[in-house]
């Protein structure tokens, strides 16, 4: 209840001016967001040749970027890593390529 509130057509009146009681844990605990569990790691096999060494280095670099991302920016880091993989795989054109519209260039 607060100032200006009415109950059954009558204005609410303060009878005792006391500080609010503490919120019981059973009430606020369900409102607290759950701590996300990290996803299980999966091994990625790459060829043991020069191309494989390049791929392994690229993967380690992307994992490092995502791992170093601050709370609240990890999803963005994952998104950028995924877009990089799509560009590298040829599924998306590189930024600035003639396949992108003028407004899409960065």
Low-pLDDT parts are 99-106
Shape: elongated
User: Order of strands across the biggest sheet?
Assistant: 1-2
Provide the residue-averaged pLDDT.
77
Sheet having the most strands: 2 strands, antiparallel
Distance between the termini: 52 Å
Q: Estimate what percentage of residues fall within beta strands.
A: under 5%
Q: Structural class, please?
A: mainly alpha
Number of strands: 2
Number of helices: 3
Radius of gyration: 27 Å
SSE map:
Layout: E1 6-7, E2 10-11, H1 25-28, H2 50-68, H3 74-88
Antiparallel strand pairs: 1-2
Describe this structure in words.
There is one protein chain. The chain is built from three helices and two strands. Helix 2 runs antiparallel to helix 3. 36% of the residues lie in helices and 4% in strands. The model is unreliable at 99-106 (pLDDT under 50). The longest helix has 19 residues, at 50-68. It is elongated, with a radius of gyration of 27 Å. The chain has a domain at 45-92. Strands 1-2 form a two-stranded antiparallel ribbon. The relative contact order is 0.05. By secondary structure, it is mainly alpha-helical.
Compact summary:
It is built from three helices and two strands. By secondary structure, it is mainly alpha-helical.
Defining traits:
106 residues, mainly alpha, two-stranded antiparallel ribbon, 36% helix, elongated, disordered C terminus
């Amino acid at each position: 209840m607060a100032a200006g509130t009415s109950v059954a057509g009558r204005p609410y009146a303060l009878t005792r001016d006391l500080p609010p009681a503490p919120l019981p844990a059973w009430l606020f605990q369900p409102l607290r967001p759950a701590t996300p569990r990290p996803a299980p790691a999966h091994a990625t096999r790459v060829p043991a040749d020069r191309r494989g060494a390049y791929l392994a280095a690229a993967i380690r670099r992307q994992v490092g970027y995502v791992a170093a991302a601050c709370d609240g920016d990890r999803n963005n880091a994952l998104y950028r890593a995924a877009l990089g993989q799509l560009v590298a795989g040829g599924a998306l054109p590189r930024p600035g390529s003639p396949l992108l519209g003028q407004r899409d260039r960065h």
